Amino acid sequence: MTHHRRNVAITGADSGIGAACARAFGALGDHVTVFYYHDKDGAEASVRAVEAAGGQAVAIQCAVNDRDSVDRAFADMEARYGPARVFVNSAGVNMRGVRVRDMAPEVWLRTVATDLTGAYLTSKRFLQSCPRGPASIVHISSIHAEAVRDGGADYCAAKAGLNNLVRTLAIEEAANAIRVNAIAPGMILTPMNQRAVDDPDYRRKLERHIPMGRAGRAEEVAHLARWLASDEAAYITGASLVIDGGLSLLQAVGA
Q1: Who contacts 109 (Cβ-Cβ below 8 Å, separation ≥6)?
Q2: pLDDT, average across residues 64-83
Q3: Residues 6+ apart with CB under 8 A from 31
Q4: What local confidence, expressed as pLDDT, does residue 171 receive?
Q5: How far apart are CA 110 and CA 8, in angstroms?
Q6: Taking the complete model, does pTM exceed 0.70, yes or no?
Q7: In this structure, which CATH number among 1.10.357.10, 3.40.50.980, 3.40.50.720, 2.120.10.30 belongs to the domain 7-244?
Q8: Is 202 in the active site?
Q9: pLDDT higher than threshold 70 for residue 253
Q10: Cβ–Cβ under 8 Å, residues 87 and 136
Q11: Beta strand extents in 135-202 (DSSP E only)
């Protein structure tokens, strides 16, 4: 099957799942815009990885929770490559492990601003420059949109909202040939789970709760994102695809 080089925009592409997505699309020869916020060195490493895989890439700073920053970042990308046809939103912050009764409002607002409002702002900006498809949006959500955790109200609520944003966008944009889907990872070995990456004993303790007996790899999530953005998934929109080794199936074990 012939692949036509596309312009692909990826937030949070300086590390973890976003960086793996950049490499995956780079392997197709795509133009990849590596949006990052904090880690410029990581973003530049992602650019090199895309180029080594056969694609072209540029790193652009973007604070997804700031409308002006999003506008500037997309305008910079469009000046270089033109409008993107694929948008993968992997930017996000994790739960803080603080219960609601003890959670500072600033913690709640920061998480929701990044994980939910950021998804709205970047999706809106993508749609403004790509009013009609074929095009694809893929948001990285979480199994914790459904399987809540003690101390995770900020993250769980933001990801649940993200899933409904995805479903709403899917019906709004279907007539424009723009597909919108979510991926819901479980335990993936990325900087967001740095302790599990660094501490094998801690990782094995957590992996005992996963039916497949291991944590996932960022590349496995990236391959799913790449497939969702492909013609092979042309009839899929409004879906949230779980990739967790069966972890979320065990919510009621022991009840």
Answers
A1: none
A2: 97
A3: 5, 6, 7, 8, 55, 56, 57, 81
A4: 98
A5: 27
A6: yes
A7: 3.40.50.720
A8: no
A9: no
A10: yes
A11: 135-140, 178-185
